[in-house]
Amino acid sequence: MFSKACKYAIKALIYIASRSNDATRISLRDIAAKIDSPEHFTAKIMQVLSKQGIVSSIKGPNGGFYIENDAPPIKLLDVVRAIDGVQHLSGCGLGLKECSAHQPCPIHNEFSEIRGQMLTMLRENTIQQLAAELSAGHAVLKH
């Protein structure tokens, strides 16, 4: 459902948020290693997140990425919007131009229900909540 870039962005933010209490900046190399992502690809993703104001960064030898302690909760929907956009969360499941309750595609009703559940999950879950699950040992970012 999400692009590879979006999945890496979510994992990177969860990792950064899980380390934000340490008051440290996380290097690009460390992020890429912890989420099992190519460093160059991770750099592009982090640049987008930084430009969107989702994550903060400082350049230089003591630089890195971090989330401000007083930052508002980062909803998963904000991350998906920044990386993938949300057009795939509102269109027809089969890609038809004309699909509605009046002229449904064969999967319209089931897909609408699933899409609604997905949107609810993206709106209600935050990076900070998921980072707490990671920190508590209830979740992992890679195998």
In what range is the share of β-strand residues?
under 5%
CATH superfamily: Winged helix-like DNA-binding domain superfamily/Winged helix DNA-binding domain
CATH class: Mainly Alpha
**Portion of residues within helices:** 40-55%
The name of the CATH architecture is Orthogonal Bundle
The count of strands amounts to 2
The strand line-up of the biggest sheet is 1-2
Tell the overall outline: elongated
Written as H for each helix and E for each strand, in order along the chain, the element string is HHHEEHHH
What number is the mean pLDDT? 91
Tally of structural domains? 1
Report the sheet with the most strands, covering strand number, pairing sense and barrel closure.
Answer: 2 strands, antiparallel
CATH topology: Arc Repressor Mutant, subunit A
Given helix and strand content, the structural type is mainly alpha
User: Unreliable segments (pLDDT under 50, ≥5 consecutive)?
Assistant: none
Number of helices: 6
- The radius of gyration computed from the alpha-carbon positions, rounded to a whole number of angstroms, is 17 Å
Distance between the termini: 21 Å
